[in-house]
Amino acid sequence: MLTATIDAFETPPAASFNVGDVVTLKEGGPRMTVTYAGPVALNPGNWLICEWFDEQGELRREMFAPANVRAEPRSIPAGSVLWNRVSRAA
């Protein structure tokens, strides 16, 4: 006879992210690339260091808790490109 118990307080493990993964904040924001995943000095637990380019083209870097981000596909479908924001160099 097989028996199983269910722990109502058991939570699923947090998603694991790797360097090179593309993520966004759960509350929205730009697509970011994970450049580091693991412990950070003086901060308990594991963290993600992410980089992205802001609207002015400046490179940004910030640290996030893995629970605050969600995974995104690495590539962007061609139909989602906003052409009015793309400019050509002369």
TrEMBL record:
InterPro entries, sorted: DUF2158 (IPR019226)
Stored Pfam families: DUF2158 (PF09926)
Source taxon at top rank: Bacteria
Protein name, per record: DUF2158 domain-containing protein
Species of provenance: Paraburkholderia metrosideri
Lineage per the UniProt record: Bacteria, Pseudomonadati, Pseudomonadota, Betaproteobacteria, Burkholderiales
